[in-house]
Amino acid sequence: MMDTLHIIGGGLAGSEAAWQAAQAGIPVVIHEMRPKVETFAHKTGDLAEMVCSNSFRSDDSEQNAVGLLHWEMRQADGLIMRIADAHRLPAGGALAVDREAFSAAVTEAITAHPLIAVDHEEITALPDNGHWIIATGPLTSNTLGQAIQQETGTDRLAFFDAIAPIVYADTIDMSVAWAQSRYDKGETEEERKAYLNCPMNKDQYEVFIDALLAADKTEFHEGETAGYFDGCLPIEVMAERGRETLRHGPMKPVGLTNTHKPEEKAYAVVQLRRDNALGTLYNIVGFQTKMKYAAQTAVFKTIPGLENASFARLGGIHRNTFLNSPTLLDDRMRLRSRPNIRFAGQVTGVEGYVESAAMGLLAGRMAAAEIAGRDLPPPAPETATGALITHITGGAEAKTFQPMNVNFGLFPPVHGLKGGRRGRKDRYKAYTDRAKTLWTDWLDAQAVL
């Protein structure tokens, strides 16, 4: 009888790993402690619940490393991408989804698969035998986290991952805000108007920054340090780095024209992105925060167009646990001290929904191959998925290892092309063309086994 693959964690990585293994004919049990054991960030017991945002970021597979990762996962029969495509929302050049419909559909697909079972008991210790993948993500339970810490012999690394607020659409003042994607990006009118924009003049921006800096913030627990991941900085931390920082980050006014006052150039712009298929919810783009709830309401209502806003969810902040993977994992994602255990997802030190799911896809395929008596090498480092696993299992400097999004800086260079900004378009196209060929070769090699 074929051995069973056990997966701890039913997030995006765990769900994708289970799907890939089951599609290869391997029986799978997902051990997901929710809803019996809750976390403060999750709201449901569904699998693949999206907590921080509803966006999978850029879907451009020719000029963007994230979009390339989307392409690779689609080519590999990725469940997460298939469900995301089925529940996508207008978001310019990005792939955004109705998050509730998305997680419900993933749950339905997983529970309907004849080779996958879901168990809702918490796993609190590292298993001594069997085939296991730990994909518990940034909210690994304290008990399991302590078991991992005891096994690895190192302190858990942590940063703080912040959640952006969500606004009810009918409370946004559309006589102030207007619908437009930056640079009118998108192939359809709906895509070109996927974001709502709230403009600020200089005085309004200064009032907002003053309120942001003065607001009450969440205190850290004893022993915790504020080591944020730069791709997910709370807005107040950005503001503390300089009063103009937000104007050059999530509040940059470029590529937008106020349809109410086209002759006026905004000093700063707050963007909101649709969060559900009905268009009743919008999240404030890039506005992760650790302000206390009362302070959030007061500060965000200083934004023109949001003076009377009501919030479906306010922002939050949580500790994010991840391994020092370059020292602990081999290139098959196995824990060196216990090779019957693989890790996948954000706990490995990748950052982002897509990156987490991609590591789940890889771990699921590698585990399935091992159970079937084969060895599956990682994909070439010139692919998006290969660049990520190469980075986390040896390419990164262990002493300074921090969570990483996929980006072309992780790829081996393509020689003979013009450098700098002017050569970027040709250079990125060369990266993606090369990656697609090598990824297809990697998939084809598995098909003939």
From TrEMBL:
Give compartment(s).
Cytoplasm
Q: Which InterPro entries match?
A: FAD/NAD-bd_sf, MnmG-rel, MnmG-rel_CS, MnmG_N, TrmFO
> Which terms does the UniProt entry file under GO BP?
tRNA methylation; tRNA wobble uridine modification
Q: Which residues form the MnmG N-terminal domain?
A: 5-374
**NADP as UniProt keyword:** yes
Enzyme's top EC category: transferase
Under the heading Gene3D superfamilies, the entry gives:
FAD/NAD(P)-binding domain (3.50.50.60)
The reaction(s) annotated as catalysed by this protein in its Swiss-Prot or TrEMBL entry are: uridine(54) in tRNA + (6R)-5,10-methylene-5,6,7,8-tetrahydrofolate + NADH + H(+) = 5-methyluridine(54) in tRNA + (6S)-5,6,7,8-tetrahydrofolate + NAD(+); uridine(54) in tRNA + (6R)-5,10-methylene-5,6,7,8-tetrahydrofolate + NADPH + H(+) = 5-methyluridine(54) in tRNA + (6S)-5,6,7,8-tetrahydrofolate + NADP(+)
* Residues annotated for FAD binding in this entry: 9-14
One GO MF annotation is: tRNA (uracil(54)-C5)-methyltransferase activity, 5,10-methylenetetrahydrofolate-dependent
Q: What is its main location?
A: cytoplasm
* CC annotations in GO: cytosol
Q: Does the keyword Transport apply?
A: no
Q: What does this protein do?
A: NAD-binding protein involved in the addition of a carboxymethylaminomethyl (cmnm) group at the wobble position (U34) of certain tRNAs, forming tRNA-cmnm(5)s(2)U34. Catalyzes the folate-dependent formation of 5-methyl-uridine at position 54 (M-5-U54) in all tRNAs.
| Protein name according to UniProt | Methylenetetrahydrofolate--tRNA-(uracil-5-)-methyltransferase TrmFO
Q: Which organism is it from?
A: Rhodalgimonas zhirmunskyi
